[in-house]
Known about the structure:
The structure holds two protein chains of two kinds. By secondary structure, chain A is mostly helical. Chain A has helices spanning about 1-10, 10-35, 40-60, 65-70, 75-90, 90-105, 110-135, 140-145, 150-180, 185-235, 240-260, 275-290, 290-295, 305-320, 325-340, 350-355, 385-390, 395-435, 440-465, 470-495, 500-520, 535-555, 560-570, and strands at about 360-365, 375-380.
Amino acid sequence: MATDKFIANLPKIYGLYTGGFLAFVVVLGILEMFGLPQRVIGWIFLAATIGLYAVIGIISRTSEVSEYYVAGRKVPPVFNGMAVGSDWMSAASFIGMAGTLYAFGYDGLAYVMGWTGGYVLVALLIAPYLRKFGQYTVPDFLGARYGGNMARTIGIIAAIAASFTYVVAQITGAGIITSRFLEIPFEVGVFVGLAGILVCSMLGGMRAVTWTQVAQYIILIIAYLIPIVWMSYQVTGVPIPQLMYGEALQQIAVLEQQLGVTNPHAVPFTDMDKLNFMALTFCLMVGTAALPHILMRFYTTPSVRAARNSVGWSLFFIFLLYFSAPAYAAFAKLEVYKNVIGTPIAELPAWVESWARVGLVRVEDVMGDGILHLQGLTLNADAIVLATPEIAGLPYVIAGLVAAGGLAAALSTADGLLLTISNALSHDLYYKMVNPQASTKKRLMIARSLLLLVAVVAAAVAAQRPAGILAIVAWAFSLAGAAFFPALVLGVFWSRANKAGAVAGMIVGFGLTLFYLIGVHFMGMDKWFGINAVAAGTFGIPAGFITMIVVSLLTQAPSQEVRNFVQSVRYPRLDQA
Amino acid sequence: MQTDDKKQAYWDKNLRLTAVLLGIWFVVTYVVVFFAPAINQISFLGFPLAFYMGAQGALIIYVAIIAYYAWTMNRLDREYGVAEEEN
Lengths: 577, 87
């Protein structure tokens, strides 16, 4: 069969692709030495990569139902791992995380641990069982386990709420990168990014998105690692940043004393207290194990065994970027403390001006002596990753590469999210609840038109530049965690859990989380135990569990049919007795 | 062959494994963070230890937990006759 041959050839195809991409970067680097202008390099990078994703999307388009929703369940664990990796790592991970670590030092590690440790929960508590259940979406599981449309409907609402806020952030990220590197207005940049997203996910559903995401993973990881390997070599003489930045941390500690820094990089709980650190980590972990666009990916593996292995590969590929992010932050900080602070303001390099123009860097002569002091330099967290290649004096081609990587991160996540939203509407709402007789052709047509509609609405919201994107991303985690995690976990591990319990638990968990974050963030409500709004799920998640258990015990035990269902998901293969 | 006893034994083993691994996950994450200022006094590979754990150590252990779980469960599947047909 043609497909099997395609699967067998995957390592060769992506190997050639990786080599070709590296060659492309080298050629551009050589052209830069011959005087190719920076603006042209930016254009070539973004146009070439978006074009590449479009071609992959078009080649792997499909209109067959199981290919559209679960890529034919043929994705090998390693490649599914890469796809999960790029689905997972959004603009926030790629652009935001190292910047947060730069600003907060140790306290930023709450994000690193939260966004990786959650995969332990995915692997142990969720992925194998969802794969054994083997349908298309997360609301499908809720509908089957808790019978009827109530649980399914709440699942649809929560999936759309969490995914939509998340997708707005991605399109915003894509808009920032395209507008900065193409030098076009932000509102136009948003729609350029959107066009890139649509060609991949509109045409071929999960199959096209999967193979595009693998390609995007390769670009984003190359783009992330090259600058820090380079800086590590410059600073320490050894090109292994993950091992060598301990040395950079020591140098930073010495410089911090000289400069009189009040929140030293490696000292815990200077920006966030211990309770908030732990609460945020908890919400990010539980949210990870409940985000529909990630869980859906584990339906695409060929077997339960492959699903288990695939979670391992996913975390491995995510790990490559996350354990490099603190190194990125450390080398950037060292570079700034050592070579930027203390120089005469009149002699600052060109990057200061070009980043000041987009409002992400500010320089002030605080002492009035013409020298740049620490207090006089304001670096926006979002500028760190994108600007560091220039700060460290690397060739501009590296800055273009990093921009292409950031764009790949934003686009791949947006693809996955849009697919989740349109599946929730066309599969869960329309096909399963409104019109079960709908033909395949009609369902896919509805999926595609809804996808287009949702994407345009999301882009319109993103063009308004809603404030506090990072906070909104964290809210999506709290909301998804509180709505789905108890119902999914208890659904597998506690056969006594019933419909009434699940519905009550989901409503209470989701509702309380929403109430707390709106109350604290927008209404000036007093914090409970000092917990910040970003960790709103701290209250919603346990409340969801407790409500679900209490209500289940107070109402009738589930039927034999439901108990058989629970048995069926617990065993990869179950012979009929 | 899947008798009820055997099925129950498989599930019990799965639960025990899951509980132990979640215990390790909890210690690596929350216990280390709870004592972070004290642990940070220790130096490891040139890093303060609590910083190292948050930035790399915990992540390596997370990957190991998942790999060990997948490997053990895949073996249990075969041992207890619940593995999927090879295709």
